[in-house]
Structures are given as C-alpha cells and as structure tokens.
C-alpha cells in the first residue's frame, strides 16, 4: 500500500493488484484503532472462541500505515491519488497479466468486516459510559472499485514497465525433523501445544489470542504455555523418579 502510494506520487502510473485484505482506519473516535481493539477486548478473543480457527489464523494483516498526520490509509486514499485497482494476480500467460474478477467481492467483504469492528467498538464505548467524552460514531465510505476493473494487462505492449512483488512472507518449517506439519506446511498445534510431546510453539498468528503475533500477545501466551511446559516437565520427572 505504501509503496504504491509513494510510486504514484513520484509521477508513475501505478496499478495495484488487490487480494483478500482487512480494512481499518488509523484513528477512530479520537483514538488509535489498536487502542480501541485492545480496550474492547477484540485482541483478547481466544482461539477456542472462534468458529473456524484455521480460517482465523490465515486472515491477512490490517492495511495500516503510520504517518505524522495519522491519516487513514486505505484503497480509497490510493484511488484518490490516481492508483488503479485490479483483482489479485492470477497468472501471466503469453506476456499478458491476468487478474481475478473477485476485486469487488473482496472489497465489499472488507467493508463489511470494518463495519462489524466499528459496531463492536461503539457498543463497548457506550457500555463503558464513554459516549459523552469522545467524538460520536461515524462510518467510512465504501471502497470505490469502479464499473469494470480490467481482468488483464498486456505486459509486452508496455502497459506495465516495472513489477514490484509485495506478497509478504510465510514461515518455513521444513527443517523440523518431527512429523508435526499439516498439508500446507504449518505446525499442527492446540494453542501452542504441538502434536509432538515436549514441543511448544509461540508467536504465530492467533496462537491463543487474536493478538498472539504482537509483542503483548506473545507475553500473555507465554505465561500460559509456561504452565503447559511445567506440567510436561513435572510429568517426565515423576516418571524418571518412578
């Protein structure tokens, strides 16, 4: 998002391929969105409280950026700057980039989730008696997609001169010599207790809480995993003494 914005402002015409994403404002009702999520208990939601933890652990990070102005940085801000939006890159065939036709659906889903998050914050603020001391609730305009985003671009014709891959990263656990990986190469675990005696995991997304991959979330998870680890070591010690 930031790279696209900076490249566009430098005078280049940027086309951004958009996949699944989480939309969020930098600030809401006078506070940072993370501050609200922490206070309202959103970040403390536990892994055993969600309907589909596998899906929850694959949710992308929020589209947030920091700036001295603390401006909200979303797809609308990019389109206002002149960036063109297309769907997720599906492939390149014969010098032609092909894009998914799901751009509108992905944006509508992100808008829907944003509305639900703000509803949760507003409900918590009201229940906590804060409505009189903070700005009133408001909603952000829907993501503007346009009538018919292109499904392809001819790279050979010079429509695109430079491709910047900003696809993030994923962990590689192939070095583990124990059979604890699922079909996608991720470690099988239950709240950090790995499917192998004496092995524990910490710091991965939604390990035990929605904030597990944050520093504060890792701290809370570690406190609970220490209990699990201690119980395991005590059990081993008992067997040894026996």
Describe the structure.
The protein has 2 domains: 2-154, no CATH class; 189-241, no CATH class. 32% of the residues lie in helices and 13% in strands. It contains 6 helices and 11 strands. Strands 7-8-9 form a 3-stranded antiparallel β-sheet, with no helix packed on it. Strands 1-6 form a two-stranded parallel sheet. 17% of the residues are buried. The mean pLDDT is 92.
- What gross morphology would you assign? flat
Percent range of helical residues: 25-40%
Structural class, from secondary structure content? alpha/beta
Q: What is the residue-averaged pLDDT?
A: 92
Give a summary of the structure in a few sentences.
By secondary structure, this protein is of the alpha/beta class. Helices cover 32% and strands 13% of the residues.
Spell out the key features of this protein.
single chain, 242 residues, two-stranded parallel ribbon, three-stranded antiparallel beta sheet, 13% strand, 6 helices
Describe the secondary structure blueprint for this structure.
Elements: H1 2-9, E1 15-18, E2 22-23, E3 27-28, E4 31-32, H2 33-39, H3 53-56, E5 62-63, H4 75-80, E6 84-87, E7 89-93, E8 96-99, H5 103-127, E9 152-154, E10 189-190, E11 193-194, H6 215-241
Parallel strand pairs: 1-6, 2-5
Antiparallel strand pairs: 3-4, 7-8, 8-9, 10-11
